[in-house]
């Protein structure tokens, strides 16, 4: 078995690192090419249009769930062994964290995974925002924000309802759920065809979604051959970003695992994809207002993602693929917050500002008015 050879040659931790890097590189390359972005899909939907961005997100989402369920059907994966289902989770943290993450996602113009992909293409706004996201995530996990996170997560947990398994709680069988998911996948492919997003983007979106069951399969396979316990997991970017940051601030040996390979892998994959297609371009902030907006959004995502137990990918796709109730609560909260923030900040506020400037124009001899945010 190839994984046994990999573990024998590089050790269990080395194999996990390499696997995380390879899967991350695939995710990064195809996410860059497909333009996969939950923020873009949420804004498109909230503005009354179901277009290409929504089609791409739906393909990724339905592919991830369908692939994960097929792994389970062939006994290649056991969802109940995943952290989201094997231990109690916070429902209050999922709801509040999702709201904070969705708000920050719109302010930063991208979720954590999208910022990582964009930073690899030369977007300095995304790079700085991603660093702030990782710092706040680490502060929320083990730093001065961890007591606040614990206090907000404590009021309501899945212990109060007996399970975090949405299928068990709803009484829906896996066969029915898989049928519905496959219908959803077919519908999303039809939407992509209708919106003419192109064959390559459709394939790339499908590949992004397939990275989730691939990661489940890889970590599950490693649990069978590793001498030390291996966490069953797929893709997420809140905890891994914090862990990768700490890799540069502590002894590396104790930090080597799947997560630490994932984040650099995504960066490298997105960079190579952008390089191959001539899409590398340095981009910076356009004024102080833009910078403040991005950094505030990144901070909200860092705390919100850690409070919710996952980001737009970690909860919204990975957690949803195993029907963890808290993941679906987080995803719903992200959509609500993103739509609301877009309506208030990017639609209503500029309109009010424009009306105010029209009613009270600045004197020609005075300072120039600030340009709206990017």
Structural key phrases:
374 residues; mainly alpha; 16 helices; globular; disordered C terminus
Walk me through this protein's architecture:
This protein has helices at 2-34, 38-46, 52-73, 83-86, 91-107, 112-120, 124-141, 146-153, 166-170, 174-194, 199-225, 238-247, 258-276, 288-308, 314-321, 325-359. It is an all-alpha fold and 374 residues long. The chain is globular and about 70 Å long. Helix content is 71%, strand content 0%. It has 16 helices and no strands.
Distance between the termini: 51 Å
Secondary structure category? mainly alpha
Count of DSSP strands = 0
**How large, in whole angstroms, is the Cα Rg?**
21 Å
Average pLDDT metric: 91
SSE diagram, text form:
Blueprint lengths: L1 H33 L3 H9 L5 H22 L9 H4 L4 H17 L4 H9 L3 H18 L4 H8 L12 H5 L3 H21 L4 H27 L12 H10 L10 H19 L11 H21 L5 H8 L3 H35 L15
Helix pairs in contact: 1-6, 1-11, 1-13, 2-3, 2-16, 3-10, 3-11, 3-15, 5-14, 5-16, 6-7, 6-13, 7-12, 7-14, 8-14, 12-13, 15-16
Summarize this, please?
The protein is an all-alpha fold and 374 residues long.
């Amino acid at each position: 078995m190839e994984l046994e050879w990999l573990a024998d040659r590089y050790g269990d931790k080395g194999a996990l690192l390499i696997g995380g890097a390879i899967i991350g590189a695939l995710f990064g390359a195809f996410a860059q090419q497909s333009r996969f972005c939950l923020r873009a899909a949420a804004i498109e939907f909230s503005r009354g249009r179901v277009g290409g961005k929504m089609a791409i997100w739906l393909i990724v989402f339905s592919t991830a769930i369908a692939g994960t369920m097929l792994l389970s059907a062939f006994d290649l994966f056991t969802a109940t062994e995943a952290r989201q289902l094997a231990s109690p989770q916070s429902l209050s943290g999922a709801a509040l964290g999702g709201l904070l993450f969705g708000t920050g996602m719109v302010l930063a113009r991208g979720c954590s995974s999208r910022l990582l992909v964009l930073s690899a293409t030369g977007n300095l706004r995304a790079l700085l925002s991603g660093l702030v996201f990782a710092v706040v995530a680490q502060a929320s996990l083990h730093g001065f924000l961890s007591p606040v996170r614990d206090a907000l997560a404590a009021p309501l947990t899945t212990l109060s309802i007996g399970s975090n398994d949405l299928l068990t709680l709803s009484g829906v069988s896996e066969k029915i759920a898989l049928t519905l998911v496959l219908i959803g996948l077919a519908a999303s492919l039809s939407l992509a065809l209708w919106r003419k997003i192109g064959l390559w983007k459709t394939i790339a979106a499908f590949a992004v979604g397939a990275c989730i069951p691939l990661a489940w399969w890889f970590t599950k396979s490693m649990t069978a051959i590793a001498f030390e316990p291996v966490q069953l997991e797929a893709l997420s970017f809140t905890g891994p970003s914090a862990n990768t940051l700490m890799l540069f601030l502590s002894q590396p040996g104790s930090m080597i695992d799947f997560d630490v390979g994932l984040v650099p892998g995504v960066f490298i994959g997105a960079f190579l994809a952008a390089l191959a297609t001539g899409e590398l371009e340095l981009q910076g902030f356009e004024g102080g207002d833009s910078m403040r907006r991005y950094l505030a959004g990144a901070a909200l995502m860092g705390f919100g993602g850690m409070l919710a137990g996952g980001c737009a990918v970690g909860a919204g796709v990975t957690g949803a693929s195993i029907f963890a109730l808290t993941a679906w609560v987080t995803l719903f909260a992200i959509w609500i917050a993103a739509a609301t923030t877009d309506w208030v900040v990017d639609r209503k506020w500029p309109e009010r500002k424009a009306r105010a400037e029209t009613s009270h124009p600045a004197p020609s001899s005075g300072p120039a008015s600030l340009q709206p945010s990017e």
